[in-house]
What does this fold into?
Amino acid sequence: MEVKVIGCSTTWTDKPVSCYCINNKIIVDSGEGTLKYYKQNNVNFLDVNNIFITHLHTDHFAGLGAYISQVLVYEDESKKYRLSIYGPKGIKKALNILAQNFACPTINKKVEDYINVVEISSKEQIIEVENFKIKPFILNHGGLTNIGYVFEDFSSAVGFSGDCTYDENVKEFVANTKVAFLDCCSEKTTPSHMGADKFKYLQQCFPNKRLIATHSTDEFILKAKEYDIETTYSGKKYNF
Ligand SMILES: [Zn+2]
Ligand SMILES: [Zn+2]
It folds into this structure.
């Protein structure tokens, strides 16, 4: 499978925030302003029919406004449910707030009448799209629910943690991957984010897995080499 990193930074940088693309067809997270980087990465957002959102912070989901208006304003009735959006409990309400107040306030339509919105509340809700089996994991982001997703196909199992602190569920998430894009914000783990300390611990637990740090601060990216932690950057393309 091909993975493009469209964005992987924290909010307070000049770089794009969270957004990944699989096989030019599936998006994982679409933070504020990420849509304008699609072209640079040769991704056409009209080819994207499935979007997976980890949690409802703006740096992970506020870029969905343009998708919503594309479907509600520009596509005709025959395109109803072309697009599916998966995310944590509350995403239906959040998407309607985004549509009615910001994306297309003059269009009086309910998002769920035109877009297949799937709220995930359990790890048993396994999804199958585009020849992938997608396993959700409920992770803790400072008390806020964050869904980590593992995309399995014949060749690999690639996980995207979103934002989370360390707990046993993260360990189980990593155990289900071959490659994991993992939140590693800074040196020390906090109640909201993992740090290099727990990232190193996971590397020790799973020496045969490739763990790639994301959502890192600019300061931490400069230090990551000292910790022997692999980082990534916007525009990077992988084949797993
Ligand atoms: Zn967050
Ligand atoms: Zn974030």
